[in-house]
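Input record (Table S2, row 235):
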Amino acid sequence: MTTEQKVQELYFPQTKKREWDNGVIQYSTVRGDTEVLISHVPPHTIIEPHDHPEAQIGIVLKGELQMTVGQSTQLLTPLESAYIAPPFVPHGASNLTDEEVIAIDIKRLKDGEEYTAPPTYFLDIFKTRDLLPGMEVTFFVEDWMELMIANIPGNGGEMPFHKHRNEQIGICISGGYDMTIEGFTEKMEFGTTYFCDPKEDHGAINPKPEASKSINLFFPPRYNRLKPKASKVKK
Ligand SMILES: [Fe+2]
Ligand SMILES: [Fe+2]
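Output record (fe (ii) ion complex):
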C-alpha cells in the first residue's frame, strides 16, 4: 500500500464484514477509539442483552427495532429516536417484524470522556433547522456528543471546507456525495463512513441530481448544548 492509500484509509477505512450465528450481518469501520457498525437484522431476530466497556450510540435506518437499554424499552423507528448505552449498561434488541432492520451503532471508549445518558437512555429529536440554505439538519444531543442527520441537496449542494476542534464522523445513508478530508476525496454511497479528527480540513459536495442524506457525529457537540440536568446517568 502506498503512503497515499494509507492516509486515504485513515479517513475512509475499509469495511470489515462480520456474520453472527443469529443471522445478523455487520459492516465495521474503525479509526482510533471509535467503531462504526452498520447492522442488518433479519426478521424475527433477537440480539441478546450484553454489555461492554465502550459507550454505544445507535439509530435505526430502516424497519422497526425494539431496543432495551438498562430497564428501558422503546420501539425505534427510522431516524426518529436514538439511544445511548453508557459503559457496562446492558442493552439488547429484537426485530419482531417480518422486515429486515438496518441500524447504525457507534462504539467508543476515549480517555477523558464522560459517557452520560438521559435517565431513559433514549434521545428524542433536539432540533431541526437549516444549517445552510436548503441543507436541513436534525440533531440529537447529549453532553459528550451530538448526532446530526443532514440532507445535502443535489446538483452541487455543498458543505464548504472548514475545520474545528470537534472530532467528526459520518456515514452516508442515502444518495451519494463526494467527501474530502485533508485533500483526500472519497465517493460516499450507502454505508461509506468517514472519520475526521479535530482540526482536519473537510468539506462535501453532492454532484448528483438527487439529494443525499448522512449521519454525522461530533465529539464534543458542535452546534447545540443541553441545559444541565439534575438527574443523569453517568458512567
Ligand atoms: Fe453493544
Ligand atoms: Fe465539520
